[in-house]
Design goal:
InterPro entries: Cbr1-like_FAD-bd_dom, FAD-bd_FR_type, Flavoprot_Pyr_Nucl_cyt_Rdtase, FNR_nucleotide-bd, Globin, Globin-like_sf, Globin/Proto, Hmp. It contains 12 helices and 12 strands. By secondary structure, it is of the alpha/beta class. The mean pLDDT is 93. The protein binds 1,4-dihydronicotinamide adenine dinucleotide (NAI). 1,4-dihydronicotinamide adenine dinucleotide binds next to helix 10, strand 8 and helix 12.
Length: 397
Amino acid sequence: MLSQTHIDTVKATIPVLASAGTAITEHFYNRMFTHNPELKDVFNMSHQATGRQPAALFEAIAAYATHIDNLEVLTGAVMRIAHKHTSFNIQANQYAIVGHHLIETLRELLGDAFTPDIEAAWSAAYQQLADIFIQIEGNLYKANAAKNGGWEGFRTFRVAKKQAESELVTSFTFVPVDGGNVVDFQPGQYLGIKVHPTNHEFDEIRQYSLSTAANGQSYRISVKRELGEVKNGVVSNYLHDCIEEGDEVELMPPAGDFHYQERERPVVLISAGVGLTPMNAILDTLSAQGHQNPIFYLHACRNLQQHSFAKHVAGLTQTLNLTHYTWLENGAPENAERVFAGQMQLAQVAEILPLTEGDFYLCGPVGFMMFIKEQLLSLGVSDDRIHYEVFGPHQNF
Ligand SMILES: NC(=O)C1=CN([C@@H]2O[C@H](COP(=O)(O)OP(=O)(O)OC[C@H]3O[C@@H](n4cnc5c(N)ncnc54)[C@H](O)[C@@H]3O)[C@@H](O)[C@H]2O)C=CC1
């Protein structure tokens, strides 16, 4: 139990942590992976290489210390992280390892400034946070296992179908090798997938949004091939290059607290690039449900060759009350209908959008979501009707 002294001590150490910056979390991860290399199987090592994970952990620790006497403020972030942890199959005993390396990192970096009082306060504070995550994650694991088609831990699936959707995006449909059902999910949720890339030192676990509606039998994800630096797209490119129909992968049950919410309001889905995957799942789900309220779908990508699901979305106008537009960054073909050239400018379609009552869901690169959120706010859409999540290590904007 945290005492007032612990709380005061943790808050008093915030400036020390802030001045050390991400050196703390970088040191922490180096230390942990040196002493517990088995955890490389669990953590996304590409996010280590880019520095995004140490930055995210540092921000999380700073936010926790800042709000330690009013943790309700962090409920949304805690739920988002807990869902993500379950897709990695994080277990209670791993919190003790992380806690040990965090405390030892503080001792090593702060030296004499890391007094016994500070150690006691941070140990208690870490334990409080770990207990919160362990409880929420334990409940999510149990709830998933109890559902029809549910399971706990990794389950082996076979690739039933591999299908190109555009120049860079390929879909993979997975069925369980045990022949059982699979648990339903909310459109917008993702799967944790574990693979062992060729010649790789450790397993890799990644999250991919489910890209079509739940059907009880199979799951589909749609993956973008990453061009450029090798450290990006280790798993995505392995799936593209090495995983074929008939091959097996390990999956955790669907997770994620960012998903479509039925609210009897018009829906506006706005995506860019491969961020269209959850939007496609939402559209397919609404179509299967016979949804009749107006839906608007706005999508941005580089060019026609990279426009996945274009025909599929056009076909959904048969079943849904759907209006859709596309922005092609590198230029629109002449006479193309519902297609604009350049980056997405909402002013071009603002008059048809339900600005005063609609729910707006955004998905795509962070820069794109920031760009669109700003436009929505300036068009008068209230903040509480703009929904998005940052894929990858947690980040606010
Ligand atoms: N469930 C989720 O939240 C998912 C999120 N994503 C995210 O989507 C992103 C990947 O998208 P890519 O296909 O690589 O996109 P991309 O880099 O090919 O960009 C696609 C389009 O986004 C627009 N865009 C990009 N940056 C912009 C900016 N700063 N301002 C205005 N417009 C901008 C442009 O129109 C561009 O053509 C990743 O960040 C990934 O994490 C992807 C899948 C699922």
